UniProtKB/TrEMBL annotation:
Transmembrane parts of this sequence: 135-155, 219-244, 265-287, 293-309, 321-345, 395-414, 434-451, 506-527, 533-552
Catalytic activity field: 2 chloride(in) + H(+)(out) = 2 chloride(out) + H(+)(in)
PROSITE patterns noted in UniProt: CBS
Organism of origin: Athene cunicularia (Burrowing owl)
Protein name according to UniProt: Chloride channel protein
Known role: Proton-coupled chloride transporter. Functions as antiport system and exchanges chloride ions against protons. Important for normal acidification of the endosome lumen. May play an important role in renal tubular function. The CLC channel family contains both chloride channels and proton-coupled anion transporters that exchange chloride or another anion for protons. The absence of conserved gating glutamate residues is typical for family members that function as channels.
GO CC terms: early endosome; endosome membrane; Golgi membrane; plasma membrane; synaptic vesicle
Swiss-Prot/TrEMBL keywords: Antiport, ATP-binding, CBS domain, Cell membrane, Chloride, Endosome, Golgi apparatus, Ion transport, Membrane, Nucleotide-binding, Repeat, Transmembrane, Transmembrane helix, Transport, Ubl conjugation
Keyword Hydrolase included in the entry's annotation: no
Domain CBS intervals: 665-729, 755-821
Major subcellular location class: membrane
Record InterPro entries: CBS_dom (IPR000644), CBS_dom_sf (IPR046342), Cl-channel_core (IPR014743), Cl_channel-5 (IPR002247), ClC (IPR001807)
Family: Belongs to the chloride channel (TC 2.A.49) family. ClC-5/CLCN5 subfamily.
Length: 825
């Protein structure tokens, strides 16, 4: 069984990035003076991580045992100097691409809180400081909600305007989009989109908008604007913030699990992602802004953490803030505060205490309120495709709803496999070296195919809004061109009617749009521009759902005497709502791709404002998840985490194999012995030799080479900083000075060099397990305590070490995956 000692893991290795990520602002290789902040905190969606270089456990490969490290004698002064009585800057902090020590960070925060509480009784000022410290978390949530809501409103307004700019311009003011331009027009309701204030590019240039040449000119301008927007986006990302591409959710999941990626949540990433997200969405590419809005909100949270000391100096506390920021991001993306909190809990967060739940709810509430105050769409709604249905659904409709769930699961599994295969090809071939060319080609193909079809020409959010819409008397859309019988109309509710020619035209156009969206999204997601997957997935499902809904509606209209319809759908009744089918299909496809369940249903419920549709949404979401899980267990975000080799230990999967800790630990048989440091017999030179000739992030400290009894664990980074500072600031520290990790030292001749006492940087409670501990328990310990490493002992003697990487490689091997080429690519 695992020992009860509190672990403070350390042995996590640095990771190498390709040149793209190395150019990122704030990346410092080999700097030991970097601050603890993550201001400049893994795309790495496009860059490859080299996990193999420096991440092996501390094995002495080149020195053949401990003989080289027996120290330079026991000379020293009789006075023992503890150089680290005061904490040094940098000690206890983390390098880039390392995992944080959750146990140590939580312990630090408890100590800080106890100190503030005890001081609060001493003076009024200390009491005020205690109250402000307790209140700072809520103030931070308020600021995150305000900033995230404001940026979301800015992105919505800008993207709406730039999307319409591809088709024309407003004469009353070029800053108006099409809808706002026509608000003050005197045109009839049916001609509201043809107001004189708005002119297409052909009308502006040629003076008329009819004819083949006008169509070609509009077509040409549409493609040119799309290419301009996408090229500007990819060039900004490549030049200023490589981390701003992609959706960001896989990397945020990894960061929330404790990984450090400096720059990923920094100010440059926030600025460039906000600008390029507008450009990418406006270009007409098959992507959405909802996923990247989570990244934007987390950037806001990370940057605002610097205003508060307790979050700036504690990585674990900062990750609680980032969990709440992710909830605020989904809140403004969908106008769903409760769904945002559940999304953070279900999908992205690794550690989510009850306190974080409350604060996430508050941040999501403030963000949604801020966005509602901005009112980006002018309709008092937070999203473009908000809709309300009024007709109840019938039990027999669960059959088509479940069919939509099956379709969503199949589409999700197909998309994940195809997209991962394409992204792997991008990483392993020359294609990855030409991101600008790839974006140019995909944008050109998308724009050329999209313009002829009005359902692909419009923005994806507008398309979803159109598909969710429940046809009313005044609707002029092709989807609502039914054969009207006004004698049977009762109030605002229209009965099921025979489809007119406009509906049939819309059906085949939607079918073509479905085929295009299914395939073009595979190549779009993962390019070097901000790209979300929520909206394209919902569009695919909404199109399929609308097609099925109209089919069921027409079947009920022409065959209302069939047994399946006769009990509840009489002639002239309003039985089937095709928009509801579109909504259920959207939920099914989004669930198939992301494998969300509870949060997905709540988000869709908040979008529609109808409690009575929760059961259809639940049925579709669960069916979709079951079908997709039967084909492949991973959602799209987990698949991208594995593709990029991020050190993420999935908490949802069970470990069911019967291996032991001794089967996984290093060193193995025939490996060189474990590299260790003795507590009182090694000189500064000996320790520096170990540091220079190995690349490990930490070293076990033992009593002696012979006994191998464990004393503790020391971080490489802390050793380097401490020795460097001792050489500069402490007299008498030379290469032959003995390093002591003990409380006391024997009296030595006064002529000997000064000793260096480093007990204060020694972790005296490293987590240990015995060699006979089942790996099932070890994996559970790593997951639930967030360990980076644990030491393996036998009868109290140190045997080896198990790192997080060893656990991940072991799981990959048991799953018949190549741990080197797949897990740590």
């Amino acid at each position: 069984m695992a020992s009860r000692s509190c672990q403070r893991w350390v042995h996590q290795e640095p990771f190498g990035l390709e040149a793209l990520a190395m150019d990122q602002k704030g990346y410092r290789r080999g700097s030991f003076q970097s601050s603890t902040s993550d201001e400049d905190m893994l795309e790495i969606a496009g860059a490859s991580l080299d996990f193999m270089a420096d991440d092996d456990p501390p094995l002495d490969r080149e020195m053949g045992g401990f003989s080289s490290y027996n120290g330079g004698g026991m000379n020293g002064t009789s006075t023992m100097m503890d150089f680290l009585e005061e904490p040094l800057p940098g000690v206890g902090t983390y390098e880039d691409f390392n995992t944080i020590d959750w146990v140590r960070e939580k312990s630090r925060d408890r100590d800080r809180h106890r100190e503030i509480t005890s001081r609060s009784k001493e003076s009024t000022w200390a009491l005020i400081h205690s109250v402000s410290d307790a209140f700072s978390g809520w103030l931070l949530m308020l600021l995150i909600g305000l900033l995230a809501g404001s940026l979301a409103g800015l992105i919505d307004i800008s993207a709406h305007w730039m999307t319409d700019l591809k088709e024309g311009v407003c004469l009353a003011g070029f800053w108006f989009n099409h809808e706002h331009c026509c608000w003050k027009s005197n045109t009839t309701f049916t001609d509201r989109d043809k107001c004189p204030e708005w002119e297409s590019w052909s009308q502006l240039i040629l003076g008329h908008g009819e004819g083949a040449f006008a169509y070609i000119l509009n077509y040409f301008m549409y493609v040119i604007w799309a290419l301009l927007f996408s090229l500007l986006a990819v060039l900004l990302v490549k030049g200023f913030a490589p981390y701003a591409c992609g959706s960001g959710i896989p990397e945020i999941k990894t960061i929330l699990s404790g990984f450090i990626i400096r720059g990923y949540l920094g100010k440059w990433t926030l600025i460039i992602k906000t600008i390029t997200l507008v450009l990418a969405v406006s270009s007409g590419l098959s992507l959405g802004k909802e996923g990247p809005l989570v990244h934007v909100a987390c950037c806001c949270g990370n940057i605002l953490c610097h205003l508060f000391t307790k979050y700036r100096k504690n990585e674990a506390k900062r990750r609680e803030v980032l969990s709440a920021a992710a909830a605020a991001g989904v809140s403004v993306a969908f106008g769903a505060p409760i769904g945002g909190v559940l999304f953070s809990l279900e999908e992205v967060s690794y550690y989510f205490p009850l306190k974080t739940l409350w604060r996430s709810f508050f941040a999501a509430l403030v963000a949604a309120f801020t966005l509602r105050s901005i009112n980006p769409f002018g309709n008092s709604r937070l999203v473009l495709f908000y809709v309300e249905f009024h007709m109840p659904w019938h039990l027999l409709e669960l059959v088509p709803f479940i069919l939509l769930g099956i379709f969503g699961g199949l589409w999700g599994a197909f998309f994940i496999r195809s997209n991962i295969a394409w992204c792997r090809r991008r990483k392993t071939t020359r294609l990855g070296k030409y991101p600008v060319l790839e974006v140019f080609v995909v944008t050109a193909i998308t724009a050329i195919l999209a313009f002829p079809n009005e359902y692909t020409r419009m923005s994806t959010s507008e398309l979803i809004s159109e598909l969710f819409n429940d046809c009313g008397i005044l609707d002029s859309s092709k989807l609502c061109e039914y054969v009207n019988d006004f004698n049977s109309t009762k109030g605002d509710d229209l009965p099921d009617r025979a489809a007119g020619p406009g509906v049939y035209t819309a059906m085949w156009q939607l079918a073509l749009a479905l085929i295009m969206k299914v395939f073009i999204t595979i190549f779009t997601f993962g390019m070097k521009v901000p790209s979300g997957l929520f909206i394209p997935s919902m569009a695919v499902g909404a199109i399929a759902g609308r097609l099925l809904g109209v089919a069921v509606e027409q079947l009920a209209y022409y065959h209302h005497d069939w047994a399946i319809f006769s009990g509840w759908c009489s002639q002239g009744a309003d039985c089937i709502t095709p928009g509801l089918y579109a909504m259920v299909g959207a939920a099914a496809c989004l669930g198939g791709v992301t494998r969300m369940t509870v949060s997905l249903v709540v988000i869709m419920f908040e979008l529609t404002g109808g409690l009575e549709y929760i059961v259809p949404l639940m049925a579709a979401a669960m069916t979709s998840k079951w079908v997709a899980d039967a084909i492949g267990r991973e959602g799209i975000y987990d698949a991208h985490i594995r593709l990029n080799g991020y050190p993420f230990l999935e908490a949802k999967e069970e470990f069911s194999h019967k291996t032991l800790a001794m089967d996984v630990m290093r060193p193995r048989r025939n490996d060189p012995p474990l590299t260790v440091i003795t507590q009182d017999s090694m000189t500064v030179e000996d320790v520096e030799t170990i540091i220079n000739e190995t690349t490990y992030s930490g070293y076990p400290v033992v009593v002696s080479r012979e006994s191998q009894r464990l004393v503790g664990f020391v971080l490489r980074r802390d050793l380097i900083i401490s020795i460097e500072n001792a050489r500069k600031k402490q007299d008498g520290i030379v290469s032959t000075s003995v390093i002591y990790f003990t409380d006391h030292s024997p009296p030595l001749p006064p002529s000997s060099p000064s000793m260096l006492k480093l007990r204060s940087i020694l972790d005296l409670s490293p987590f240990t397990v015995t060699d006979q501990t089942p790996m099932e328990i070890v994996v559970d310990i790593f997951r639930k305590l967030g360990l980076r490493q644990c030491l393996v002992t036998h009868n109290g003697k140190l045997l080896g070490i198990i790192t997080k990487k060893d656990v991940l490689k072991h799981i990959a091997q048991l799953a018949n995956q190549d741990p080197d080429s797949i897990l740590f690519n």
